[in-house]
Amino acid sequence: MFLREIAAPVSDLKGAGPALVARLFRLGVFSGADLLMLAPRDYEDRSAPRALAEFGQGPVNCRVRVVAHDWFGFGRMRTLKLWVEDEAGTRAALVCFNRAFLERSLPVGATLKLFGKFEYRFSELQSSAFDAEMVDGAVSGVPDGVRPVYPLTEGLGQASVRKLVSRALARWGTVDDEVPPSIRTRRGLLRKAVALKLLHAPEAPADAVAARRTLAYEELFYLQVMIARRSAVRRSEARPRTAPPDLLARALEERLPFELTADQKTAIAEIVSDMAGQWPMARLLQGDVGSGKTLVAFISAMYAIAGGGQAALMAPTELLARQHADTAARLLEPLGVRLAYLSGNVADAARRPLLAALSHGDVDLAIGTHALFSEDVVFSDLRLVVVDEQQRFGVLQRLAIGAKGRKPDTLMMTATPIPRTLALTAYGDLSVSTIRTMPAGRLPVITHLARNGNETKVYDFVRKELAAGRRAYFVYPLVDRSEKLALKDAEAMYGHLSGKVFPEFHGGLIHARLGENEKRATMAEFVSGRLSFLVATSVVEVGVDVPEATCMVIEHAERFGLAALHQLRGRVGRSSLQSYCFLVWSDGQVSGGQGAEGARLSEDAKRRVMAMKKTTDGFEIAEEDLRIRGPGEITGTTQAGALRLSFADPVRDVDLLEAARSDAMELLEADPGLTGQEGSIVRAVLERASPFSERTAATG
Ligand code: ADP
Ligand code: MG
């Protein structure tokens, strides 16, 4: 059996009651396979001893003797403090919050095995996060080895996850290998069952490293197999295509109040040449926020439509899809282009005739969310698919698009520059067009930093802009853990700004909890100018285009990632007017974390806002982002919808990535049908289940 076939729920395991199961579910762990694939986020090396005096070098790991019990606090807050002493005679205090029961189990005179981080507080060496076990009588001297540290969620303890994982290993741990044996040998990889065992129960730190390497290779190998197969399929789909006529595209260009930039023209030429090519296009269009990608998409669509086909434009949020539909209505309907808008919120009654029109060829351009690619949507002759802000979609979602229509051309658009290694990973066979220059007459956005408390100055500045007829955004963070709290923030600030700060102007409020119609109406009023300012959460982050907006105020800027800040700032500076971005940041929030973590957060937050102040160049920002976060974080967390790799990190593991890539290509070249001895293992794995889980696109 392959690991991914273990569909039995974790609740089958002894000791996995409903509460525990529910908490695991929050970690994305449902089946036995999920549990075995739960990657430890770290390891505690308890094989190396460390005395109390060496607490500065890492967690203390030694034997101590309990020398005294002490109490502090009153009533229910009464807390036990255990004084211990190690063999070198160093004394330290174990602060036992909510662990009064330790008074009995760790009596004075007992010898303990102690593990934990210590620090100097109130002039004593102490720890409140420690593990202590009694050493029973005789000296055992057996090292404790290396323990995995799992990601946790509220109410879930390390000990219960460890126990459950070890039961899962015993029950399901003998799985079949998924990487063909010759490749395993060549790359020095472990058997899968061994890798799993060493991942969760390593004897030495090196075991865990080797286990990860094997599992990472496997992930990358299957990713590369999928990419190689996709491009093989694409190349096998030779089709008769001729250069599409340019009459519609020309008509559109003539209607524009401005000239296309040279880079826009080049991108269009590259796209049109792909459209006339022998194989379906697979092209990535990169261009910084505000560089004018939408227009490139519309003009490309004009070619497809003039050639007698249909085009589809997919956006990650309704807000953005609506905006594109409105722009299209303005620019394209006068040319006779028949449009349709489709999202999950289009009611059935409206949806049915719309689907019929699509399938009869009565619609030329369909614009919408991923609902465009649900199963019941049939196009009569889909020739071009454009995916806007494609980094927001999952890889498989993107792959599914190719399945619609007869070999449509695909154009992926992104404002997030993709590092080469990532491009290799997830976009293996894409060609790339890049828009480097902004439309003529644009002025770089001027960015100011302001400390929380000085925001009145910011408001005064914005007031002048509003009085001059410009518009402004005010953005507040939406924090995962306390969404309600943060939403209240935006709401409360809306009340404050419209009631107290700008009573003479109309404002609107927009966030993800509002209904689509409400959001749409507010947005339309902001576009038309009836509303002068918009108070929002990060729903306005991607794509929103209101050229008259000249001020972007981001409060609690320290809460936003660099990529998000850059996207948000990209909402202004979209015309020849001078625009401003104000990053209001607060120290209090920054150092709200605990100890070292809080300090690090504040350092990173400072670097982020400084980077924003220093440059408006998206490529530079992306590089700085990579430096701040380190390669470890770039894949999973940066973008919702990024491919979920549990073990591999395409930046750190670039050597593995390249090995996997060449192995996958070699295998497929020698055995394209995957029917040989080794190939059929790969085919079996691919057939059993999708090797990757997907995150759905976040809708902000
Ligand atoms: P993005 O690349 O971020 O998606 P958009 O396509 O939203 O950018 O374009 C930003 C703004 O620039 C839009 O208002 C668009 O009409 C305008 N624009 C696009 N191309 C040009 C151009 N060549 N000259 C002037 N303005 C342009
Ligand atoms: Mg855009």
At a glance:
This protein is α/β, with parallel strands linked by helices and 700 residues long. It contains 23 helices and 22 strands. The chain is 40% helix and 17% strand.
Question: Which descriptors would you attach to this protein?
Answer:
700 residues, OB fold (Dihydrolipoamide Acetyltransferase, E2P), Rossmann fold, 22 strands, disordered C terminus, binds adenosine-5'-diphosphate, binds magnesium ion
Strand order across the biggest sheet?
6-7-4-3-2-5-8
| CATH top level assignment of the domain at 446-615 | Alpha Beta
CATH architecture tag of the domain at 446-615: 3-Layer(aba) Sandwich
Determine the fraction of residues in helical runs and give it as a percent range: 25-40%
Bound molecules: adenosine-5'-diphosphate, magnesium ion
How many whole angstroms does the radius of gyration measure?
29 Å
Distance between the termini: 39 Å
Residue windows where pLDDT falls under 50 for at least 5 positions = 137-143, 589-601, 631-643, 691-700
Q: Assign the structural class, choosing from mainly alpha, mainly beta, alpha/beta, alpha+beta, or little secondary structure.
A: alpha/beta
Mean pLDDT: 85
How many beta-strand runs? 22
β-strand percent reads: 15-25%
Structure, described:
The chain has 700 residues and is of the alpha/beta class. Among the domains are: 48-144, OB fold (Dihydrolipoamide Acetyltransferase, E2P) (Beta Barrel); 247-278 and 292-414, 3-Layer(aba) Sandwich (Rossmann fold), CATH 3.40.50; 446-615, Rossmann fold. The protein is 40% helix and 17% strand. It contains 23 helices and 22 strands. A seven-stranded mixed β-sheet has the order 6-7-4-3-2-5-8. Strand 2 and strand 3 form a beta hairpin. The longest helix has 32 residues, at 205-236. Residues 137-143, 589-601, 631-643 and 691-700 have low confidence and may be disordered. The structure holds adenosine-5'-diphosphate (ADP) and magnesium ion (MG). Magnesium ion is lined by residues 293-294, 388, 543. Adenosine-5'-diphosphate (ADP) binds next to helix 10.
